[in-house]
């Protein structure tokens, strides 16, 4: 490839390509030298670091036959070392090798010793650079970078990567669960309560619904078991949905009376901001969702153990409970609507199972030290796949999306890799980088 064209690649290049080259040894392993003509033999590239600090930890490098152990830093240009002020950061004192595309300046440690540098500009194959350009050429795709070659990737590579992505998605969802465990002092019943509130609040009201849950001592929820009127008054009162109501509504008056009693008895303080109704379909109104959830908790005690130990069919039976009769003819207080039972829909139950129950089962199994997740895979495989624009676009690429496990996996792929152009961290993108141009 002409030198001028390699200069062009440099200006379109990102450091993630150099990380990829180093991590997977896409340079000539034999005859590798530093810019000072030292022989380099890479015993271990180290562990890739996505956080602050050097790019690769605990590498092992032989320089002229002498073994060094330490960290490796990767830059487009050597001068980036100083542009990023690494010379002032003690985290970089143990860098044993500087890997760059272009070596434009010598780099020194704090003690004055020069850091050995390997320049990749003239030793990387043309085919790798061309594959990189093809993968990230924005003129080539409408949906994701690899859409034109997606069907060319070996199915074995895809299947293994997608299984890893599903576990990765559960691990990411477990972060919030771990935070709730700390908040609740490992009270799994309360964690489920807050997780359900988050799901019932959906995208618009999830944060305020969680705050409603946190405003209630969970012991109160237990005390109101089999007391549906009081349970509902508690939910609505803490959500500030009983305030400023001027309509003549007997049921509302009952709820206000019950809430005033509970607020005095338990020293309750409602949330600062009440939930939103704007742009929500009536079945997603906070009144309906809170009425549904309060009915579930009025009917069931020890809900976590009921759900965590049950199969998916039992889960649906437990949560299919309807609301109090008032909501058969209302979506909000004081406004009569056409009569209809406000049971939780099957599609919403599926979302609860996907986004709350399965992540909780996964986190609880980890908490108990269990490592086999095959049962969770099978449960998700029985649930209908989600329908959205992302899944539709993957369907067009002939992706095999049959059930909820598949759709969750492809959402993880798109949101965490495709959308962020992290193709070189993706097994599918990495496979395409290895194809000869």
Explain this structure.
This is DUF2851 domain-containing protein. It comes from Maribacter litoralis. InterPro entries: DUF2851. The protein has 437 residues and is α/β, with parallel strands linked by helices. The chain folds into three domains: 122 residues, no CATH class; 112 residues, no CATH class; 158 residues, no CATH class. The protein contains 18 helices and eight strands. The strands form two sheets. Strands 1, 2, 3, 4, 5 and 6 form a six-stranded mixed sheet that branches. It has a two-stranded antiparallel sheet with strand order 7-8. Strand 2 and strand 3 form a beta hairpin. It is elongated. The two termini are 13 Å apart.
SSE map:
Layout: H1 3-12, H2 15-23, E1 40-44, E2 47-48, E3 56-63, E4 66-77, H3 80-83, E5 95-102, E6 117-119, H4 126-135, H5 155-183, H6 188-200, H7 202-214, H8 218-223, H9 228-238, H10 250-266, H11 286-299, H12 303-308, H13 312-319, E7 330-332, E8 335-336, H14 346-367, H15 374-381, H16 389-396, H17 404-418, H18 427-433
Parallel strand pairs: 4-5, 5-6
Antiparallel strand pairs: 1-3, 2-3, 3-4, 7-8
Helix pairs in contact: 5-14, 5-17, 6-7, 6-14, 9-10, 9-11
């Amino acid at each position: 490839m002409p030198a001028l064209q390699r200069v062009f690649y440099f200006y379109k290049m990102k450091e993630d390509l150099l990380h990829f080259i180093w991590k997977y040894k896409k340079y000539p392993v034999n005859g590798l030298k530093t810019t000072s003509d030292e022989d380099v033999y890479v015993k271990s590239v180290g562990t890739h670091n996505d956080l602050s600090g050097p790019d690769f930890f605990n590498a092992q490098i032989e320089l002229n036959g002498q073994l060094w152990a330490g960290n490796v830093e990767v830059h487009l240009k050597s001068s980036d070392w100083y542009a990023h002020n690494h010379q002032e950061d003690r985290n970089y004192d143990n860098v044993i090798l500087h890997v760059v595309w272009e070596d434009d300046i010598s780099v020194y440690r704090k003690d004055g010793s020069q850091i050995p540098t390997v320049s990749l500009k003239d030793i990387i194959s043309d085919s790798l650079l061309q594959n990189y350009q093809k993968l990230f050429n924005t003129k080539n795709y409408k949906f994701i970078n690899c859409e034109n070659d997606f069907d060319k990737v070996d199915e074995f590579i895809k299947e293994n990567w997608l299984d890893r992505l599903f576990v990765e998605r559960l691990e990411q969802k477990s972060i919030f669960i771990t935070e709730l465990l700390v908040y609740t002092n490992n009270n799994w019943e309360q964690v489920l309560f807050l997780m359900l509130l988050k799901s019932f609040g959906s995208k618009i009201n999830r944060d305020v619904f969680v705050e409603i849950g946190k405003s209630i001592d969970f012991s109160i929820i237990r005390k109101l078991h089999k007391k549906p009127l009081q349970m509902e008054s508690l939910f609505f009162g803490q959500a500030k949905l009983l305030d400023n109501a001027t309509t003549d509504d007997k049921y509302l008056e009952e709820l206000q009376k019950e809430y005033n009693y509970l607020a005095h008895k338990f020293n309750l303080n409602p949330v600062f901001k009440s939930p939103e109704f704007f742009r929500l379909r009536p079945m997603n109104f906070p009144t309906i969702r809170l009425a549904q959830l309060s009915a579930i908790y009025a009917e069931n005690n020890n809900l976590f153990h009921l759900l965590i130990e049950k199969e998916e069919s039992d889960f649906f039976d437990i949560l299919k409970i309807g609301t109090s009769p008032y909501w058969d003819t209302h979506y909000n207080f004081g406004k009569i609507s056409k009569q209809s039972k406000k049971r939780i829909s099957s599609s919403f139950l599926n979302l609860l199972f996907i986004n709350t129950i399965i992540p909780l089962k996964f986190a609880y199994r980890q908490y108990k030290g269990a490592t086999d997740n095959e049962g969770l895979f099978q449960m998700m495989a029985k649930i209908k796949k989600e329908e959205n624009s992302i899944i539709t676009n993957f369907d067009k690429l002939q992706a095999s999306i049959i059930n909820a496990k598949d759709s969750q996996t492809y959402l993880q792929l798109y949101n965490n890799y495709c959308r962020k152009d992290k193709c070189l961290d993706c097994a599918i993108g990495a496979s395409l980088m290895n194809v000869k141009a």
